[in-house]
Amino acid sequence: MKPVVITEQTLEQTLTKPGIVILDFWAPWCGPCRSFAPIFEAAAERHSDVVFGKVNTDEEQELAGSFGISSIPTVMVFRDGIGLFQQPGMLSAPALDKLLEQVRALNMDEVRKEVEAQSKEQAE
After folding, report:
1. How far apart are CA 47 and CA 121, in angstroms?
2. Any idea where the domains of the chain sit in the sequence?
3. 15, 20, 33, 50: the active-site residue
4. What is the pLDDT at residue 119?
5. pLDDT (average), residues 64-80
6. Are 46 and 93 in contact (CB under 8 A)?
7. Confidence grade of residue 97 (pLDDT, cut at 50, 70, 90)
């Protein structure tokens, strides 16, 4: 499956669906972003169960700002609406595959408990 374009209007509906979403924050003028694009697109073909989304930071500056994106490319991974990973810089194809394997292997019930516990701590 081809990566989808993510905008401020489509982000919420994309992230609230069950499953894994991986986002690539990029810009057309960014050399490393252009180098990473074929790796990201090939991974999208290999992992049809994952939603691959591309966020053009030139066109979606507010969205990039809301995620604190300060360097591109930046890769973010969500599962069941929970942010699990964020890293600036390119990932190799094997690193991207390994990351997705690790995300698939997570026990999301445990992750939700951890997120809830952290939220309670921050509220106190």
Report:
1. 36
2. 4-123
3. 33
4. 82
5. 94
6. no
7. very high
Per-residue CA distances from 72 to 46, 85, 96, 115 (Å): 23, 15, 16, 27
pLDDT score at 124 = 72
Please state, in angstroms and as integers, the Cα–Cα distance from residue 6 to each residue in 3, 9, 68, 95, 124, following that order: 9, 8, 16, 23, 35
Which entry of 4, 30, 90, 108 is annotated as an active-site residue?
30
Distinct helix (H) and strand (E) counts, the chain: 5, 5
Give the integer Cα–Cα distance in Å for 124 and 115: 15
Cβ–Cβ contacts within 10 Å for residue 68, how many? Answer: 8
What average pLDDT does the chain have?
A: 93
Q: What is the pTM of this model?
A: 0.92
Instruction: Reply yes or no on whether 33 is catalytic.
Output: yes
- Fold (CATH) for 4-123: Glutaredoxin (3.40.30)
